[in-house]
Amino acid sequence: MSKYAQVFGQYLDLCRQVEGRRAAAPLIARLNKAGAEALGRIAGKYRPDPMAVPQTRPDSLFAPDYGVNLMRVDLPVDAAAAFRCGVPNLNSYVGIVANDAFHPTHSLQSLPEGLTVCSLSAVPEHLVEKVINILIHIVDNSVETGDPTEALNALLLSDGILIHAAAGVKVDKAVQIVNISNPATPMLAPRRVVVIAEDDAGLKVLLCDHSQAPTVEHLSVECVSVDAAKGSSIEIYDIEEGQPTSRRAWRLNARQADSSRLSVATAFLQGGISGNGFHVECTGDHTQTSLSGLAICACGQVVDNSVTLVHKGLHGTSRQNFKSALYDDARGGFGGKIVVAPGAMFTDAAQSNKNLIIGDDARMSTAPQLEIYCDEVKCSHGATTGSLDDRAMFYMQSRGIPAEEARRMLTQSFMSDVVDSISFEVLRQRMHVLVEKRLSGAAASCDTCATACGSQPLNTEL
What is the pLDDT of residue 77? Predict the structure, then answer.
């Protein structure tokens, strides 16, 4: 047995040991079975992506002997301590995921007609087959891609969240899911969010990751499954504010039908090691897709974003914009692929990855790619990695701006277009503040970040 098969096989063995004793709803049980079959097929042939940052590869993230709460032992969480929402007056529908258990709040008891936010164990009967078909398709597709994350999540999952908007329902308020990690021992928490917008529906979803475990290494395996029907609009925002001990494997899988619009924006503000994967299939005609992400990393933090966007329909439009600022000995990675399938004529796709290296020991690897299998398309991709502009620094200092403040201002300006792409106005305004705080002192430099996380500014020495 290869070392990779052993890494993933340990979770298959664990589930076999409790087989027959796990209490799961029929939908979850079917997903567990599909996950076991898919992971068994992947484990023996898994080969790590040579372009990925080693620390964020599945074989690295899943190698430690984490505990998994398969028997649904109640783990107490101080939600009030962790739920320090950085977006005041958001006026959202809020659900809390404590480790891997979903806890709806009072705001979910008064949802507008046509909006469903519930546990996967309580999916309305008329939606069960639709939800399971979406999830099984994604798990089966993971066998082809060779990424075990979706299959492992499906195998271990005990519950999840469904966010569903019926046809024609446009929800103005955001649905906010607050993920809280506070394990007393090293734990793996599988999480699943299913987002479905029927024909001409509209949804906004905000995912916030927090941690109460500054001394315990823990791994969250979160999979976001998106199905955008004809003419629908879905916006998803993900904000990560963990601890240096946080480990995250985050995957977004989406399918878009005719004239649908999908916007996804991620932000890494605090944490440890984070591997994020995006897989979007634009199967319909006239689709619009926007993917963006920003990462501000220091103190050994690692963030890797991997994107595969497949255009299959006519007249599809997509934009990707990912930026990183790396301090101290941080490590970043970006692997982006645009695939224009045969027959997907008149596609207009662009991809950009730009990175700032602020620190002698920081490292960034980037690999933008295009695969085009038809004519009559407009596609572009590009990547840059460098330091702050010396001329801009000189100009600002000559006007009396201290060097440290000048660096922060230039870095914030560098990130501004990613934040400005957020169409959700309240969140966009708050994200500008959060980025500014992160750069000016909300994250500490390496000598204090493991304990203080908020008292000292970033080390911005070039």
Answer: 63
